[in-house]
Design goal:
Strand content: 5-15%
CATH architecture of the largest domain: Orthogonal Bundle
CATH superfamily of the largest domain: Penicillin Amidohydrolase, domain 1
Largest sheet: 2 strands, antiparallel
Strand order of the largest sheet: 1-2
Oligomer: single chain
CATH class of the largest domain: Mainly Alpha
Number of strands: 2
């Protein structure tokens, strides 16, 4: 009887050590940076990000609007990495690249509607007519998003699924906006 109790104690101890190790490893390798300093070569001057007690980022920039939006893009991507990459794949009708046969019908539907194709054509035809300030803000935001794609730790979901993140484009944003219009 003592042997069984000893064995159970060892088993519980080993499980606690393994679970703690996995937790610490994932906390170190898959958690975004909320404290400290991050250097982004994409910025022309320093911007500051302060996270309040609820985890909401507050961004301040003494330089220019572009740096503010680049920082905003970086912080959004840092918090929503997997979600934004998933939106890119949904908007492009490419979910099957991640999830296999289970999502082929979804991809076929999205591709047959042709949202990404339509939005890409529409954008190339109309980009010069669009509000230049809005486009400048969106492009700066995408610079920040793509800086995070290159530098931020990949979310555990992407690591476990073996997914390599891809940079985001204006067309990707427009394609997902088109998908959302069906909601």
């Amino acid at each position: 009887m003592k042997r069984i109790v000893k064995g159970l104690i060892y088993l519980v101890f080993i499980l606690v050590v393994i679970i703690s190790g996995v937790y610490l490893y994932s906390k170190i390798h898959f958690t975004p940076t909320y404290k400290g300093k991050i250097t982004l070569s994409e910025l022309s001057t320093a911007t500051n990000v302060y996270y309040d007690d609820y985890g909401i980022p507050h961004i301040s920039s003494t330089s220019n609007r572009s740096d503010l939006y680049k920082t905003f893009g970086y912080t959004v991507m840092q918090d929503r990495f997997f979600q934004i990459q998933m939106q890119k794949m949904i908007g492009s009708g490419r979910l099957s690249e991640w999830f296999g046969n289970k999502t082929i019908e979804t991809d076929k539907t999205i591709r047959s509607i042709g949202i990404k194709h339509f939005m890409t054509k529409w954008y190339s035809k109309n980009k010069l007519k669009m509000n230049p300030e809005l486009m400048s803000d969106l492009e700066a935001w995408l610079v920040g998003v793509n800086a995070c794609v290159a530098k931020c730790p990949k979310p555990i979901e992407m690591v476990l699924l073996g997914i390599k993140p891809e940079p985001l484009t204006v067309e990707d944003v427009l394609a997902f906006s088109g998908i959302m219009s069906f909601s």
